[in-house]
């Protein structure tokens, strides 16, 4: 049980029906979900108005609902069905989450950053789960609806909450931070994701730093210490910097890439090993380990937890494809920073004669899109064998590679089918292929086509 209808009536005092001690086990915004003892919160979205679906929610197990004042209630409802009236259901969802977080009072770890939020959240929760009753964001439900729903699915006896916080506009992280009130706030990095709406990397840094607005007094900020835009925070009270630069509080050293793993050590020599590939993941892991150590988790426990990491799909997933070729599915999303990070890993992976990059459009880069796409070519050098691009914006990458590095095969395609056909010529056991593009490009299609064959 999360709470009772009686407790709800202390949060939302205008209600009809019976606000007795009925338990609420779940909070849902989607009437299509089969539930048990749920509170239904109808949200007005781009396509639908949740208020139109109260009957379906009721039939699917809702036992109470929020309702926007001034709207007519449908006639089918039993008289004793509790309906709580609010001015705005989205704000009410957010307020309820804040009040419930206060009631449960877990240690809260809030994670933001341009790249690596989900990965760091997964690392963080893997470390904490064995020692604490830990609740964490499912998938990447990280926005103004996802964060409240994450909090409102937290069991009442939770000791720790790990919540991812995403944004694409100013002001959004502040709202999330005020709801979640982190004891520990992590900023994984400052990249260029969503720069179209934020103007510049400086703007992105400002927006990410909004996480400080809701932090608890004496909360800790743990951040990417190598990022110049965050340098003004170094040496501040309650700020811990992590990074490769020796000026950092926590220094990441001795990074080596093995078969499907990255090894590294932190300043005092403690060795760590994560089942993820790349220096950028060593940073994500160092941020998580730093928080865990402050909470009292031993290095040995942290390393054991890293082994049991359940990593989110389509983030640099390495698998075998047709004719034994190694395929990397990094099709979840893309930014210039994460694309370059992925290419660096491909260059370092051992045991391949041919390394192919299949790169697609990176969205939401605004009027700097062309130069950001071109910047990806800074990372493209031997031992990369070939670069294939798809999408109007990605074209500049293959064109620039052709100019800068004629030894690398470089081609642009206008259809997935034609690109797939050419890829067919390269498939063998000593070939490695990276697929990376923004979500809209749906590059997982290639991975499905090149899946293993008997
Ligand atoms: C509002 C909502 O939750 N919508 C989800 C719903 O959409 P649907 O197709 O139903 O249309 P509507 O949104 O118009 O519906 C309005 C409500 O009506 C309900 N409803 C509809 C029909 C019906 O028969 N019964 C109903 O009750 C409906 O449930 C709505 O409540 O379903 C879709 C398919 O499952 C969902 O995709 C859609 O989810 C939206 C997108 C959402 O915001 N979900 C959050 C829970 C969430 O956290 N989503 C994350 C977002 C991750 C992300 O992109 N993060 C970015 C930063 C984002 C910044 C922020 N400003 C933003 O723009 O979101 C990052 O870079 O990290 C996710 O999807 O993974
Ligand atoms: N610190 C980092 N620097 C650069 N790239 C990174 C970093 N961490 C993860 N990535 C890459 O970014 C991509 C997305 O990773 P992840 O899902 O963890 O990020 P995210 O911030 O949660 O993304 P989203 O905002 O879309 O939810 C993956 O390709 C991953 O390899
Ligand atoms: C899916 C969303 N969180 C995201 O990362 N969007 C960018 C633009 C992408 O898909 O690359």
TrEMBL record:
Where does the record place the Mur ligase N-terminal catalytic domain? 24-100
Domain (Mur ligase central): give its ranges: 111-292
- Its EC number(s): 6.3.2.10
Query: InterPro entries, per this entry?
Result: Mur-like_cat_sf, Mur_ligase_C, Mur_ligase_C_dom_sf, Mur_ligase_cen, Mur_ligase_N, MurCDEF_CellWall_CoF430Synth, MurE/MurF_N, UDP-N-AcMur_synth
Q: Does the keyword Nucleotide-binding apply?
A: yes
Q: Which purpose does this protein serve, as stated in its record?
A: Involved in cell wall formation. Catalyzes the final step in the synthesis of UDP-N-acetylmuramoyl-pentapeptide, the precursor of murein.
Indicate what this protein is called per its UniProt record. Answer: UDP-N-acetylmuramoyl-tripeptide--D-alanyl-D-alanine ligase
Origin organism of this chain? Virgibacillus siamensis
The major lineage groups are: Bacteria, Bacillati, Bacillota, Bacilli, Bacillales
């Amino acid at each position: 049980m999360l709470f009772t209808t009686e407790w709800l009536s202390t949060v939302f005092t205008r209600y009809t029906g019976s606000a007795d001690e009925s338990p609420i086990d779940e909070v849902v915004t989607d009437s299509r979900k089969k539930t048990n003892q749920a509170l239904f919160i109808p949200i007005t979205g781009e396509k639908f108005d949740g208020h139109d679906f109260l009957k379906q929610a009721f039939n699917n197990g809702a036992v109470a609902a929020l309702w926007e004042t001034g709207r007519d209630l449908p006639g089918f409802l039993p008289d004793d069905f509790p309906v709580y009236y609010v001015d705005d259901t989205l704000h009410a969802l957010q307020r309820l989450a804040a009040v419930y977080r206060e009631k449960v009072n877990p240690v809260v770890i809030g994670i933001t950053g341009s790249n690596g939020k989900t990965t760091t959240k997964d690392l963080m929760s893997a470390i904490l789960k064995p020692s604490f009753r830990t609740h964490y964001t499912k998938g990447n439900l990280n926005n103004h609806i996802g964060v409240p729903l994450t909090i409102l699915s937290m069991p009442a006896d939770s000791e720790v909450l790990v919540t991812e916080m995403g944004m694409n506009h100013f002001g959004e992280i502040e709202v999330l931070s005020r709801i979640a009130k982190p004891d520990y706030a992590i900023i994984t990095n400052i990249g260029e994701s969503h720069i179209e709406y934020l103007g510049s990397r400086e703007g992105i840094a400002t927006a990410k730093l909004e996480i400080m607005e809701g932090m608890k007094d004496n909360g800790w900020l743990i951040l990417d210490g190598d990022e110049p835009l965050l340098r003004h925070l170094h040496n501040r009270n309650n700020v811990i910097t992590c990074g490769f630069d020796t000026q950092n509080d926590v220094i990441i050293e001795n990074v080596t890439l093995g078969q499907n793993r990255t090894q590294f050590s932190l300043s005092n020599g403690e060795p760590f090993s994560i089942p993820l590939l790349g220096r950028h993941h060593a940073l994500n892991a160092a941020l998580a380990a730093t928080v865990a150590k402050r909470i009292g988790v031993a290095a040995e426990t942290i390393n054991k937890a890293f082994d049991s990491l359940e990593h989110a799909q389509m983030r640099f997933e390495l698998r075998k494809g047709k004719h034994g070729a190694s395929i990397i599915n990094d099709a979840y999303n893309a930014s210039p920073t994460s694309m370059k990070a992925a290419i660096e890993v491909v260059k370092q992976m051992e045991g391949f004669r041919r390394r192919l990059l299949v790169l697609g459009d990176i969205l939401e880069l605004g009027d700097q899109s062309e130069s950001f796409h071109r910047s990806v070519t800074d990372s493209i050098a031997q031992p990369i064998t070939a670069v294939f691009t798809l999408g109007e914006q990605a074209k500049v990458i293959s064109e620039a590679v052709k100019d800068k590095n004629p030894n690398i095969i470089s081609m642009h395609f206008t259809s997935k089918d034609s690109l797939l056909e050419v890829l067919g010529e390269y498939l063998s056991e000593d070939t490695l292929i990276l697929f990376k593009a923004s979500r809209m490009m749906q590059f997982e299609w290639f991975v499905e086509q090149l899946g293993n064959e008997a």
